Amino acid sequence: MTIIHISTDYPDSFNPDKTSAIKNLLDATASKHDHFVYSLNRTDISPIKVGLGKLLPSRVAGKIESLSDNPKMISLSYEAPSRGIFLKSSMIALADHIAGDIARRNLRPKLVQGHKISMEGIIAYHVAQKLGIPYALSIQGNSDRSILNVRRDLWPLYRRIFHEAAVVFPFTPWALAYLEQRFGKRKGETVLLPCITRQDKILAPAMAENRIVSAFNLKHWRLKNLPALIRGADYVAGKVDDFSLDIFGGGDAADVAIVQSWAASADHATIRLPGAVASAQIQREMNKAAGFTMVSHKESYGMVFVEALLAGCPVVYPANAAIDGYFDDHDFAIPVPAKNQTAINEAMLRLLRDQQQLKSALARWQQSGEAAFFQKRQIAASYAKGLKAAIGRGK
Fold first, then answer.
1. Which alpha helices (DSSP H) does the chain contain, by range?
2. Phi and psi for 7 in degrees, rounded to 5?
3. Of 16-25, 77-86, 132-141, where does mean pLDDT reach its minimum?
4. Could you read off the pLDDT of 223-255 as tens digits, one per residue?
5. How far apart are CA 176 and CA 7, in angstroms?
6. Which pTM value belongs to this model?
7. What is the CA 70 to chain-centroid distance, rounded?
């Protein structure tokens, strides 16, 4: 049974460097469901140049360019203004285009899924209405929160989309809580669905030297709150002997130079930049550290935090973002406000001072079987089951 997927976060011909979160999910369930993807790419255009008339629901959203990447995927590039201007009109125009393309291809889908409520959700809602089939939603967190905070005038539509979905797949508990606080508790099926990580082996925690690690693409140093991480490392170095911070990640020469300058600004800490590490080796590096710290200003999920926990490495992560809500009852995952330097400092210090306690608790969690919830096999099974239930709603 064919399922139509609509996503702005799927690697395609227009942008092959997009996150692999959605692709990993579809690949993991390809043996159970026939997935067909419409991958969206927005080209910025001035709202004055386009004019309101060209973005009415009955018209095309600017210009739409279509490429057939493979028999199971279409890449779409569409023109639309930034900052959510004409968002509803643009999404409805794309829905018309996609519904027409589905009919021309005679795909006969049983379900359509929008992989964010704020954009793709509008499209999936209208495609489902046109085809007379149910729809599902992914709730990604950061992107949805950012757009919904700006487009409050669309909340009545989002409320309807949220509650009428056959099934909703939030990446994290905090993302679901954000929507339910605004639109009310869902009565329909909701399946918490973590992202599939690059590596998900379970490595038993082991005591390590006074070393904390972090990992991100260095071009994102602002988003990942590098200055706060450096200041935190400097604070820890003033309290603990022989402390070091290793920041793994690649980047171009300019990015590396900026991060090196921040590292050099530390008065006490030894900060190393080992460069990018092979995906197969990252968990080994984490296992050899006292803890992992990344305090991003924004983070929808943060696969790297789960990779660390599965690798036996306690983590410090940004509160109200990333994996927040999954580990409320466990002290080996420490949330801190990204703008609270004091909290960041103390949390990083705790990774070292309480290493034995935190790793003992982490070992018990791993051995309890709860860790399987974050591994590929269980995530794929949960997703396939949720899709089957959603398709059943259309019968």
1. 21-28, 47-50, 87-105, 120-131, 142-150, 155-164, 173-183, 226-237, 253-264, 282-287, 303-310, 341-353, 355-368, 376-392
2. -145, 140
3. 77-86
4. 999 999 999 999 999 999 999 999 999 999 999
5. 19
6. 0.91
7. 25
